[in-house]
Structure formats: structure tokens, C-alpha cells
From TrEMBL:
The lineage of its organism: Eukaryota, Metazoa, Ecdysozoa, Arthropoda, Hexapoda. Transmembrane segments: none annotated. One of its GO terms (biological process) is nucleocytoplasmic transport. It comes from Zootermopsis nevadensis (Dampwood termite). The keyword Transit peptide does not apply. WD repeats lie at residues 250-292. This is Aladin.
Length: 518
């Protein structure tokens, strides 16, 4: 239920510090001062050593294993003569029934197709089109499918062509998973030259990733096939783990998987697909699941577990979104004016939810109490309040920032909020303070090399010197943008506070405890 935390004065994109000179790129913020250098000489280590041990990452087309579309790969082979039956069989196998019908109804290679077959194929295409129209009328979330559906809801800008499709920091270790355009996942760690590559033929159209808390080795990868939970042994020297190292979780009609999230204890995994109105809560070890389904709103495009474990946010492809209470798995239903919720993030305490829609240049806030009490009357306002106006503004001659949001990220200290936009090429970072009032104020703007656009962003979760925003740019360059403050040094060692072994695995915890409570 909404709590008593209120929202301060609405913030906007006015008031950011001076913009870097032309040709410069933003490097870091140290003690409140933003540093930039000319792109050719840029070196963040001149200002701070906070990311000195971080792996240097650039995802180039030459680095990627060729997984271009079959249509392009066939060009390297000489054409061969095929019978009509063999041609249709190959097309059906590789591209599906509908494409085979198109080839039959409208042959493009001068091949003679019997008129009867052409008429039958054309008739079947009209029937399929009519059925799709009726289906889409009742289920609007199914109007798009496959890559188009992923691109429509992805928090990665220009997902189909982005060199980096997804970033995932481990919650406890300095370990970064990078999903690339060829659907391979590379795992980078400091102090080693070994970079495991997670890839298999059926792992196609990777859209989301999440590391399992309290385990250094398990990574959930959501894709068109379902979810691959990879076991990456941190002590192994193998760079290409086989499929025996992965557990595949999939359900009928639950594809493509567009969002995955672990509960904070790492007991269970929650998966969602923008093409499916159901969410699945998995006990990965047992490969068992519980289905969560509600009518209305369309497929579930985005899910995220609150850091305190008490709530789950679930956005749909329609105007409806829900916040589930995990104690009894009952949802509260909310609606937006238009579009759908594109991005959302929780405060570290789990009491505040920030979200942005696909059509408005605004960030909204919802506040929840820790515990339901008798002092919360039925007249408590259940309204999402706008806290940041992101209307596009000009910050430099010809340089603009703002508009509709693609991605929101809140650092684990609750002091920095990063925003990536759909059409402008700067990343905006805001300062946030969460006390009696949620206060948001401008911090800095991050600019890349000329011609680069930001594709995806993520905060490092175990950064001890403040906050570290990771940005994957359209050139394939992965940038660390540290926001360093001397008074934000790590106050405690998580490995001493919790029963974690050296390989980051939790000791004496029941993996099925949360699963049994549902």
C-alpha cells in the first residue's frame, strides 16, 4: 500500500553543470566535479583509480562470431538447382510455414509454380491474415512477435542493431556479463585474461540477463527460446562452456522471454514474456514452477523484484501494470494514461518505485509502506506522482537532451538515478535523496564520442567508492563512468556481514524456502 513518503518539487532537465566542450567526452565525477577530455586523449585514470582494475571492453563486429541471418550467410555459396518441393521444404524448415506460403503464392526466382498451388497458398495466407486480425483484436500484445516484440519493449536502445544488447553486473562480485549482437554472452572479471563465452545455437535473440545473488557462477539469460541458466565456474579455464553447463527453462507460449529477475535471496527466478500474460516463478534446481496470471493489460514485458523482497513490479504491453505482494502473491493493479510502462526501478529500501512510460517525457513515483498497518486509512491516495519533467531541452548549440525514456537505473545507495532516452544521445544522471521527501536534482550529463549513441546502461552493484554507471555505446565501446565521493567509501564488507564463501555461494540457505511459501 502507498506509504507516507512524499515527493519534493518536480525536477527538470534545466540546471545541469556546464556541458563539455565540442570533441570532449565525459569521463567521471569526482567530489562533485565533472571531468571531461578530448576523445583522442581521454583517460579516466588521470582523475580517479576507482575503475583501474575494471576490464577494458569493446565489442566489435570482428570480435563477434558470425551469426548473421541465414539470408546473408547464404550469399557466400554458389546457387544450386533445387526442385520446387525441396525449395519449399527448406524455406518451411528455416523460415516457417507463412514464408513458404509466400514463396508459393508469389515466386520470385522465375520458378514455375502450378497455378493450383498458387491459388491455394494465396487463400491460406488470407485465412491466416484474418485469424491474426481476430486474435490481435482480443490480444493486442500479440500484434508483434519475435525480434519486433523484443525491440518494442526492450530497455536497450536500437536493440536489433546494437553491438551490446544487454549488461548485467553481479550483485556481490566485480563481474560483468555482456550480451552481444551475435547472441553470445561474455563474462568479464578483473585480474584474468580468461573471458568465458556463453553461446549455443538455440540461444537466439538475447534480451535480458540477471546474476543469481549469493552465487558467483549462475547467470540467467532470457531469449527467444526461453531462459538459459548458465553455470560458469569461476575457477575454470574453459572459455566455451558446453550446453551441459546450462539449464533450459521454457513453457509453451512463454516466448520470447523479455525480463528475468531473481529474488534477493537467490531462491527463485521470475520470468516474463511480452507475448504471455503469465509470469513463472521457478525453482531452478528442481526445474519446477508456479504460474502467476491476471487478466488484462496484455503480455508481461518487464518484471523487477524489490530489494527487500516484499514486492514485484510487473509491467504489461498495455496501460496496466501491477505491484505484487510476495507474502501472499496478490497484486495491486495500476494504469497509465497511454502507452505502456517502458522502464522502472526500485529504491534500495524497496519503498519507492520510479517508472516511465513509452509516450510521456516524465518520471513517476509510487511510494509503499514497509508494513501494512491500521493507521493506513482507505482514503490514502493511490496516485503516481510525476517527479521529473524530461521535456526535451537544448543544452549546447545543436545538442539536445530529454524526451521519452528507454531505460532507468537507480544505484544501490539510492543517490544517483541514470536516464537514457529514445531519441537524444546524452545520458542524464540525477542526484536523489530519500528521507521524508524524495528529492531529485540535476547531477551531470554524459556525452560519448561524436556519432555514438548510448545503447544500454547499468550501475555496478558492489562499487565501494560511490556509484559507477556502465554505458554501452553504439560503437561497441563499454564505458565506466564513476561518481566518486570520499564520504561514500564502503562502510562494510558484505563477505563478513553474510555467510558467503570465497566463491560467492551462500552457505546454509534453503533454495526452496521461498518457493514453498507461494
Amino acid at each position: 500500500m502507498p506509504g507516507k513518503t512524499k515527493v519534493g518539487v518536480m525536477c527538470s532537465l534545466h540546471g545541469f553543470p556546464a556541458f563539455p566542450p565540442v570533441g570532449h567526452i565525459s569521463l567521471c565525477e569526482v567530489e562533485g566535479r565533472v571531468h571531461s577530455m578530448h576523445a583522442e586523449q581521454a583517460d579516466v585514470l588521470l582523475f580517479t583509480n576507482a575503475v583501474a582494475s575494471h576490464p577494458r571492453i569493446t565489442i566489435t563486429r570482428d570480435l563477434l562470431h558470425s551469426s548473421v541471418c541465414r539470408e546473408d550467410s547464404r550469399r557466400i555459396f554458389l546457387p544450386v538447382s533445387e526442385t520446387l518441393f525441396k525449395k519449399l521444404t527448406n524455406v518451411w524448415y528455416e523460415q516457417g510455414l507463412v514464408e513458404a506460403l509466400h514463396v508459393t503464392a508469389e515466386p520470385q526466382d522465375g520458378r514455375e509454380v502450378p497455378v493450383v498451388l498458387q491459388v491455394i497458398a494465396a487463400y491460406m495466407l488470407r485465412v491466416i491474415s484474418g485469424m491474426n486480425y481476430i486474435r490481435n483484436s482480443f490480444h493486442p500484445h500479440l500484434r508483434e512477435s519475435g525480434d519486433k516484440l523484443i525491440a518494442a519493449v526492450s530497455q536497450t536502445r536500437a536493440w536489433p542493431i546494437s553491438p551490446v544488447r544487454c549488461l548485467a553486473w553481479h550483485p556481490h562480485c566485480t563481474k560483468l556479463a555482456v550480451a552481444a549482437w551475435d547472441d553470445s554472452v561474455r563474462v568479464y572479471s578483473p585480474g584474468t585474461s580468461i573471458t568465458p563465452i556463453l553461446k549455443c545455437k538455440s540461444q537466439r535473440a538475447v534480451s535480458c540477463m540477471a546474476w543469481r545473488p549469493f552465487s558467483a557462477s549462475q547467470l540467467a539469460v532470457g531469449c527467444e527460446e526461453g531462459v538459459f541458466v548458465w553455470h560458469v565456474d569461476p575457477n575454470s579455464v574453459v572459455t566455451r562452456p558446453s550446453m551441459s553447463c546450462a539449464t533450459v527453462l521454457k513453457r509453451p507460449h512463454h516466448s520470447p522471454v523479455t525480463s528475468v529477475t531473481w529474488n534477493p535471496q537467490g531462491d527463485v527466478l521470475l520470468t516474463a514474456s511480452a507475448a504471455d500474460t503469465a509470469m513463472y516463478v521457478w525453482d531452478v534446481a528442481m526445474e519446477k514452477f508456479v504460474t502467476l496470471r491476471r487478466v488484462g493489460g496484455g503480455g508481461v514485458s518487464l518484471v523487477t523484484w524489490s530489494p527487500d523482497g516484499s514486492k514485484v513490479f510487473a509491467a504489461t504491453t498495455g496501460i496496466i501494470f501491477r505491484v505484487w505482494g510476495t507474502s501472499q502473491w496478490l497484486p495491486e493493479r495500476w494504469t497509465v494514461v497511454s502507452g505502456h510502462v517502458q522502464a522502472a526501478c526500485w529504491s534500495p529500501c524497496g519503498s519507492v518505485l520510479l517508472f516511465a512510460t513509452s509516450e510521456e517525457p516524465l518520471i513517476y513515483s509510487l511510494t509503499f509502506s514497509k508494513v501494512d498497518t491500521a493507521f493506513q486509512g482507505d482514503n490514502t491516495s493511490k496516485t503516481a506522482l510525476p517527479i521529473v519533467d524530461l521535456t526535451e531541452v537544448e543544452v549546447n548549440e545543436g545538442e539536445r537532451v530529454g524526451g521519452v525514456v528507454v531505460s532507468l537505473m537507480w544505484d544501490t545507495r539510492g543517490q544517483h538515478l541514470a536516464v537514457m532516452f529514445k531519441k537524444t544521445d546524452l545520458v542524464a544522471i540525477f542526484l536523489t535523496e530519500l528521507h521524508a521527501l524524495l528529492q531529485v536534482s540535476p547531477c551531470c550529463l554524459v556525452q560519448g564520442v561524436s556519432g555514438e549513441i548510448p545503447n544500454c546502461i547499468s550501475f555496478q552493484q558492489n562499487f565501494g567508492d560511490g556509484a559507477c554507471l556502465t554505458i554501452a555505446w553504439s560503437s561497441g565501446r563499454v564505458q565506466y563512468f564513476p561518481l566518486v565521493h570520499s564520504d561514500l567509501k564502503s562502510e562494510r564488507n558484505i563477505f563478513q556481514e553474510t555467510a558467503i564463501s570465497p566463491d560467492c555461494s551462500l552457505q546454509n540457505i534453503s533454495l526452496a524456502s521461498t518457493f514453498r511459501t507461494m
